[in-house]
User: What shape does this take?
Amino acid sequence: MELREFFQRYFVDPIRYNQGYNPVNTLVYALILGIMVLLLYRMLKRMGIRIDERFFISLMPYIVLGPLMRAMTDRGILPRTYLTVSPGGYFVIAGFAIASLLAVWRYCRDERLYPVYRDFGWVLVGGLLFIMVINWGRLSVRWEYFKYFIPAFIISEASIWILARRFRLIRDNRILFYTHFYDATTTFVGIQFFGFWEQHVLARTLIDITGTPAVMYLEKLLVLIPVVYILDRMMEGEDPELINFVKLAIFILGFGPGTRNLLIALLG
Assistant: This one.
């Protein structure tokens, strides 16, 4: 197989024909993500930006921007291109977030950086929301979604609350578990009640084997527990800001897709 044919089959066609992920592009995208996390961490360290609660709050609008853009793309408000669907869309949003941070940092290298960076992000979100509002006639809100989502969400989050009381590892990382169970709930509800399908290889395989999207909750535990164990126990002596940044990336990988799923299902 020629390189061009290989790239076409495993990277271009899955996006063009909405085929979801495959083992090859999943592995490549995971490697790219890992490299990007390390490079971004080094960049933030050189800029003197601490990975703390202030940075997390200032980053929230950019985290919201990705799923909002993807939902608007799937509903036909934005054109469907390689730059508006995953993974291209997330590279675009990451580019916006990095460029905005560099621009703000150039002029605000003190405490003002965080609120200015945050507010600029909300301006971008507001721009997308404005486009959505003027195209509202093309959407139909599916309010019945909440009839299924709310009970499933309450039960799933309550299960994390119970597990957190018994296991310190989960308690110390409960935000990550709450967030990824939110993602699992949007997947479960979308597939079980609204005819959606799973794009990711591992989750799709587990659903095919078990016959139920409820297996998503088990998948989240099987993936998250070893990851946070490595971060908290085996990397205990590493730079705590590096650990925080990796956990921030894990949070985004749960919150972003979960919010995307919710918006796509809710907007009809």
Observations:
- The chain has three domains: 1-48, 52-139, 141-268.
- The chain is about 80% helix and 0% strand.
- The radius of gyration is 19 Å.
